[in-house]
Structure formats: structure tokens, C-alpha cells
Amino acid sequence: MSEVTQLAESLHPHEVKVLRAFDASKDDDFCTEEDLAKRSGLEVAQVGSALGRLQVKGLTRIGSRLPRTEVSLTETGQRYFQRYTPIVRIISALKKASDTGAQLTIKDIQTREKLDSSEISEAIGELKQEGVVRIAAGGIVELTGTSSTTAESLQKLIRLLHEGTKPLLDFTPSEQTLIKKFSQKRGKPNEPFRVDERESRRFGLTETGKVVVQQILKEGTRDEITLLTPEMLKDGSWRNKRFRKYTISLQPARIVAGKKHPYREFLDLVKAKLVSMGFEEMRGGLIENEFWNMDALFMPQFHPARETHDVYFVKEPRLSAPIPEPFLSQVAGAHEHGGHTGSSGWGYTFDRMRTRRLVLRSQGTAVSARTLAATPHVPGKYFSIARCFRYDQVDATHAPDFFQIEGIVLGPDINFRTLLGLLTLFAREVAQAQEIRFAPAYFPFTEPSVEVHVRHPRLGWIELGGAGLFRPEVRLPLSVEVPVIAWGLGLDRMAMVALDIHDIRDLFSADLEMIRSKRVQY
Amino acid sequence: MPTISVNRKDLDKLLGRPATDKELEAWLPLVKGEIKEVEAATGEIRLELQDSNRPDLWCVEGIARQIRIKLNGRPDSYPYLRTAKGRLDQILVEQGLERVRPFIGGCKVRGYKIAAEGLTQLIQTQEKLADIFGRKRRTVSIGLYRLPSIKFPVTYALADPDRTRFRPLGYTEPMSLREILEIHPKGLEYGGLLSGHDQVPLLRDAKGAVLSFPPIINSRDVGEVQVSDADLFIEVTGMDLRMVMLAVNILAANLHDRGASIEPVEVVYPYKTAYGRTVRMPQAFSKPRAIKLSDISTALGDAFSLKDVRASLASYGYTVTGSGSRLLVSLPSYRSDLMHTVDVIEDVAISRGYNTFGPIMPATFTVGGLSRIEQLSDKVRELMLGFGFQEIVSNILSARVDLIHRMRLPDGHPEARCVEIDNVMSQSYECLRQWVLPSLLRVESASSRSFYPHFLFELGEVVVPDPQAETGTRSEVRLGALLAHANANFSEAHSFLDLLCFYLGWAYTLTPTDHPSFLEGRVGRVERDGNVVGLIGELHPEVLERWQITMPCSAFEQVIDLPSKPQS
Prior knowledge:
The complex is a heterodimer of chains A (522) and B (568).
Chain A: H1 3-9, H2 13-21, H3 33-40, H4 44-56, E1 60-73, H5 75-83, H6 86-100, E2 104-105, H7 106-113, H8 117-130, E3 133-135, E4 140-143, H9 149-162, E5 166-167, H10 173-181, E6 193-205, H11 207-219, E7 224-225, H12 230-235, E8 242-243, H13 262-276, E9 280-281, E10 287-289, H14 290-293, H15 327-337, E11 358-360, H16 365-372, E12 380-389, E13 401-410, H17 416-431, E14 436-440, E15 446-456, E16 460-470, H18 472-475, E17 484-489, H19 492-499, H20 512-517
Parallel strand pairs in A: 7-8, 9-12
Antiparallel strand pairs in A: 1-5, 1-6, 2-4, 3-4, 10-11, 12-13, 13-17, 14-15, 15-16, 16-17
Helix pairs in contact in A: 1-11, 2-3, 3-4, 5-9
Chain B: E1 3-7, H1 8-15, H2 21-27, E2 33-39, E3 44-49, H3 60-72, E4 90-93, E5 103-110, H4 116-133, E6 140-146, E7 154-159, E8 165-166, E9 175-176, H5 177-183, H6 185-190, E10 200-204, E11 210-213, E12 217-218, E13 232-238, H7 241-257, E14 261-268, E15 278-281, E16 289-292, H8 293-300, H9 306-314, E17 319-321, E18 326-330, H10 341-352, H11 372-386, E19 390-391, E20 397-398, H12 400-405, E21 431-432, H13 437-445, E22 454-465, E23 473-484, H14 490-504, E24 508-512, E25 518-528, E26 531-539, H15 541-546, E27 553-559
Parallel strand pairs in B: 4-7, 4-14, 19-22
Antiparallel strand pairs in B: 1-3, 2-3, 5-13, 5-14, 6-13, 7-10, 8-9, 10-11, 11-12, 14-15, 16-18, 17-18, 20-21, 22-23, 23-27, 24-25, 25-26, 26-27
């Protein structure tokens, strides 16, 4: 198939109509969009867009550009169309007043007709100049009896232009003067008319265009169709049809589709990794009592992280149900004097009532503590992705609530080196890091405690998480005899990189456009 | 976690030699420290110290000491801890203080010409100890004085706030104790610690001159230490004797490390204490602890010999005696954080270096899996995604106005009850959401310029009051779905709800109801197994107006996890 035939066959029906609207018998037929619209029977806008595409395809070209002056109505003009011009309204107000014998000042008219001070002063000035009104003693405005030609002409122009933009040259010289007088310009923004210098373009066929037109004329009115219909398939008539070829390089239209939230997608990946490593999920409530949130984790009741500037307390109700035994007494014993844990304890009087005070869960470890007390599997591995709350000023690095990814590993063989092994596994699997460094850390509920730093492929050295062996003062009062690893991963920074955001609050953004357009780069 | 400021030159001086950046970085794990900031021009380093049980490390002297011990392989010696002959100067405690602020301790410091950096560090240490360790002076507060102005014995007694006057720091005129509590900035800041007491603590010397009004303010006359002062008196008051003794021991060790000589004092109590009626300070008050060698090896997963452990602990400041498989270890005087064998075990590991331990990869077989509710949640999410809905994740903390007022719920409406925070920080986050729909409207409200239609869903947690539940509240997992476009209506939402329930195998019924958030006659309650589990309807135009939404919306919301029925 020749290039010309290919081109001809890929044309949209509107494009064919426009091409055929050119007079191919003339050597150079230059037409405006309006000419082509008349000849083809299409709308001017349809011609415009067809011409745009034809020009891209190299079939038409711009033959000439002629300057053209156009007049249109401004917003003020549109308003005057609805409610008449100030001049007309002043005259009719004065007529009505003289019928009832009332006398009006400029101020009265302005209030009555709700006109701007600039509008009324300009209109009165115009009317005085025309001799239609005069100002009598006491500022009273009176009609002289002369009729206003300006009022009538203006009203007519507004009506005409309301139908649409018109070339200035379509108007009589006196109308043109009036239009210019009442058109928007610098310092006069509230006039009814607007005069714009536009360009009038004429289009013609290119050499290729002429060949294509010949081709189209030669093909005649071939039965070319856009859509295959069920009827054509039923009766087999598709066999006699020609299908118009599409230009497939055009940008497609946008569609709405279902999509995971990008942060959730990231968390799903982490969740899948943990399950693949043999971790069972554990869950807990958003509201906890101080017992599971702190006491069971051997955080002394005077610990600074338990005060109102660190934890959110619940207003109502204030207390949970009593803490079940033997856990309450065993934990109280561990705090006071060590109990049966081999510890000397914190050495203070443990407040049993305080254990019931309700708080917003401040650490995912609360979920681990409950799991320990609920006869977990031994050996066992657990994780949770828990929403937590801290009393913090919300800013680019602090969200009002956030997810903590953490868990426990129980087993008779657990020791410091297996703890480091688990962290090495996390570093490889979750952060895809090969280089790892361990550093001593401090958590109230673990000893030894460790922090793991990894060299992330894109971020360099980052802290991946903290972990440790639960203190005997934590696990023994909850009736767990084997050593337990407690671990937590700080993945927010990795999530932010995966989502390409720089403000942690954007993980919970309300901006749908942003949520829809994010791709997770994990 | 305290953050302190350290001068590099000062640190080098205390270490005994200049340290390179690389060395410093390698040593910081010994003190669980992390560099936050370095100002190259001034040599100032901002350090964060992690261990809240090691207040001795919250100062340059303590950090340098821990590193120095490592380099020397053995602890420094502190001669003032040995019982000396001869009479000691005394602090006499009077009756009644056991009800107000029972404990006091102190020591004398001689021959230390305070330089500017030393004074800055001394004040920083005093502040960190009183602020963090002493919980804003509640349990421990510290006073520093010019020793030559004081005649011993010093008396720690109760005083009438109206009858006693002295010149406090920062003022030129004498003030009564009551005036100090009512006018002086420190009185206003710390006065609350003495509320409820008619008589307040006062420290005076043998001439009757006031040293200070603990824990509020020092006297300007004897309690204003300056650069070039050579002899000092240090005093600590508090609520817990061990904490008071530890604070004295830390300050004494710090000044000793800077070349001062420390002279102990004797505190004489009229009441019994855990350390008797006469307590010498500073004193090494830690009892030795017996540890089995095998416990260390088992916990760390490496075979440790007696020699290994001795070397590790001695180079971390411990005194180690004992033989065979049993060791007797004691902490240095400036530490009091040994509660359990595991605390010693961590120090063994830190001293040897965490990175000298070979990781053992997990070999135990366990079966991974998701909870029932998470599996169900994932299934619901998958269906909603397939229906063409965009998933949303929102914060759970919310503003009452969003959850209740903007939803047209009158106060007292059963669904207007939500769990509120007692210590609210910001009105925007004052309560926990009791339903998901407001979170979705928040997104819609912010997204009018995003391409329509909007089909949004969130599967997330909410909290509702429940007097029957353990915590008086119930965390529920709910699905909320919002449809926003020019023709959004009830039946479209109904179609999605119906299809969802079909695939989940949930038999549900819709009952017409009234709900202020929805248009009358276009809202229903969703019921499953005889429980009301949710709502479906067209959002009331007034709700949309209150959210400044100009697109019609329909929605449904339902609980995913029904309370499980007892197993039959």
C-alpha cells in the first residue's frame, strides 16, 4: 500500500470532510475556518480540531495570517444585557420619579439602582453632555425632555454582541466610535465592551494534501466505518466494510481504576516478607491499659516516658477491667523487689490501681506483651503492624498516629548471637542490605539491647531497627520460661523513599491526585 | 534520652590524649552515644546518650571515663571512697523532713581552680541530673556553694516560709521563702514540689547563714559559684536515698577526674535510713553480685573463659573477684543500674564489642501466617480494588468537628459517642474516629480537582465505646466506601455492597432508617446475622456543604469483624 493510500485511510471522517471542502480545481484555495465550516457542514470547532490534526500530518498549512479586530462583551456587558446599562436605568428611574412627583439626587439614584459610584458618575456625565439631564438646585437630577441616542445605540450593541463576538468592521463608523468609547482599557476595567486584535488565518492544502485529496476523490464514497457493531457480525456485512485506520500514537484518554494505597502496598510487601520468614501475625486494640502498654514491659511507673507529655490518656472511661492474675502480682513483684525473676527490681511501691489507667497504645510492644501472656507457641515467631500514638507535635517527621512493625521470637536456643542472626536476616530480606553494623542500644524492656544499622542500596547507612532479649523481669512474670527476642523495624524512612515523599504526614495524605499517581519503588 | 554538648578539647584533655574522629566513632558504642551535630569552628559536639539508667554518662567526664577505662584495661581508683581516719564535717538533719524531702548528701571539693569550660560542664551536669534523673528536681536536686564561706556543721531543717529571709540568686534584696515561692522565677517553676507543706526545707551553716532553700534556689551570698573558685561544697537533696547517693558519687567522680580532691562528709539523720542513721558520702554503695560463668556463655552464645569475662568487665569499670565458675562483680561508685545478671551480661558484650559476635542465622522451623481478621481484610480489599475503588489510608486521631458536627450528628446521638483524649495537644487530634466515612469525606473535600468519578474505600480501625469490653472500648475493623460523581446515588452504592456481600458469602438485609448524615428516605441500616453492622445511603447535602464538597456522594460503611460466636 502506498504512503498516500495509507494516509488517506487513516483519516478521521471530519478530516476527510475538511479536505474535500477545499476546491481542488484551484491551484491555491485559501479558506478561513468559517469558510470550511460552511462548505463541509461541520461546526467551526470541529473544523479547527480537524485542521490541527491535518497540519500535524502535513496535509494542510497556514496560507496567510491577517490581523482582525474583534469586539466582544465583557462580564460587565453581560450584566448590562441582563439588567440594562446605567444610563437606561437612570433615565427610567427619573421617569418613574417624575410620574409620582418625587425628586431624586444622584445619591438617591445610586442607592435605588445599586450602582457603583464610578458607574453613576460616568453615566450622569454622559447624560449631561448629551443634554438629557440637568442638575437643579439641591442636587436634584431632572430630565430635560431630550432623548438619549447613546442609550439606544448602546442597548442595541449589547444585544448584538450578546449573540457572539463580531469583527469591528461589521459596525457603522458611529457605532465603532461608541464601542471604542465604552470598551475596557487601562484604568477603565468596568466597561461593557472589549476590543481585541486577533489574527485571521487562512488555510490551504500542501502538495501531499493535494495528492491525498485526489486519492480520496478517486476512492469515491467508499463505505468506510468506525465501529464494528453486533449487527454486522450477525449478518456478516462486516465483510463488505472498510475500517477506518486509527492514529495509534495519540495520547489515550484517562480512566479511573482501582488501586492499592501506596503506603499500604509497601506495608503489604513487608507483611508478605515476614510471613515468608515464618512469622505469625498478632493483633491488639488501639486502646490499652498501662499494664500491657508499660508495666508488663518493666517500665517503672515513675519512668519519664509514662508521663502526660509522652502518652495520650483516655478521658472516658478512665480504667480498664482489673488486670488478671497471676500476671498482676507477678509483674508487681518484679517491679518492687524482682519477684521470682532473680532481679532486685526497681525498689518502689507499685501502684496496682494505676495499671488499669487507659491510654492510646504508644508502642507495638504492648501487643507482644499480651501474646507472651497468652501461651504462645514455643518455638514461635510473631509480628504485628500496629497503629501507635505518641504525644508529639505533628510535623514533617511526626505523624499524629503511625504504624510500628515489631514482634517477638521465642525458643530455648535463643541467645545474643541468634538475635544478631535474626537482624541480619531482616537486613537482607527487608532492606536488601549486605553490609550490617550492630551497636549497643537502650530499651527499658530488653537486655542486651541492640540497634542495627544497614547500608541501604539507595540511602546509605540507616538505622533499620532496634531489638534485644526481653529482660527476665518481662517474660518470667508473664509465665514464659524460654528466652525471647523482641524486635522492631523502623521502616518509615524506607517507606518515604519507596513512595518518594519527604513529609511523613504525606503517608496519610488526603490528596487523591497524589495518592492515585504514586508508584511504589521498592 | 539526654542530649549534651561537649567541647572537643575538653574531651581530649579528659581522655589524656587527642582522639581522631574515627577513634571517637569507634568508642561511642561504649557509652551508647550518637553524634547529632558537630560544629567544626568551635569544636562543639552535640551527643545523644541513650541509656536512661546511666546518668553518669550524661556528661563529658563520664564519657571520657568509660573510654579511658577501656584504653587502660582497668578502672580508675577513687581514694576518697576508702574510709579515712579522723572526724568528718557533718550535715545535721532535723525531725520532720521525712515527710517533706527526707534525704540529703554532699561532699567537699578542694584544690580545683574552676576554668570556664569546667564550670559550663559542671552546670550542664547539674541540670541534666536534676532535670532528667531527678525528674525536674522532684526526686533529686543539686546545689553548689563556695566552701570558704561555710562553717560546718550544716543543718538541714524545716523552716517557716514567712519568718525566714535571705538573698536568692538573681536578686539583690533579701526575700522571705514565701516571697520566693510567689515571685522568684525558680519559685514559680518548682514551688509545686512543696505544695501542701506548711514548713519547707532550708539549709543553714553553723553561723546560721542560709545556704539554700532546696529544691528551689541557692543563696546569692554562698551559692554563686564562679570561674576561678578553688573550693566548693556540693549538696544533693531528694526523695530517694540511693538516688541522692548516686548523684553525689557522680559529681565527686567528675570533679576528681578534673584534678580536684574530694573530702567526704557525714550526714546524721534523726530517723532510720537503709544505710543507717549516719551516712558517709560519697561511698561505694553497690553490693557485689555473684554470677555464674555459664550464664554469660549461654546468654551470649559464645564460650567465655573466666579470663575473658574478667578482662571485659575490668575494662568496663567493674571490680571483679571470685574464681572458678563463680564470679563476684561490683559496679563502680558512679553506677547503680545493676538489677539482674543480664545487665552484667550486656556490659560484657558491649566491652568486647557487639560486632565481634558472629550472627547465627535462624534455623528453627515455624509456620508463618496472618490472623483471621487480616485475611478477611485482605480479601475485602482485593474485592474493592477489583470493583475499581481507590484505597485510602487515614489517621485515626481526628477532630470532633469532623466526626460529629460536619456529619450533622447532634450531641447525644448514639453514633456521636467517640473516645476522647484527656491530655489533648491539638484540636485537630482530640479523639479517635468512631467511623471511617469522615476520613473519606476529608479526602473528597481536598480532591475536587482530581479527575472524576471518585470511588474511594478505606479498610481500617475505629474505636467505639463498649462498657462490656476489657478496656471499656472496642477497636473494630471497618470498611468505608464513598462514591462521588455527578450521578452518584443510592442504587449504585447498593450494587457494590450487594456484590461484595455476595462474594464474601454474607447474607445481609437493608432496613430503612433515619440518619442525620444521609438524605431522608435514602438511607438504610445493614444487618448481618441479626447485628446492625453498618449504613448505606446518599450523603445529606448539608453534610456535603459542611465539608465544602460540591459533588453528590453516596456511601456505605460496615463492620468487617463480627464478634465471634461461641464455638458450638
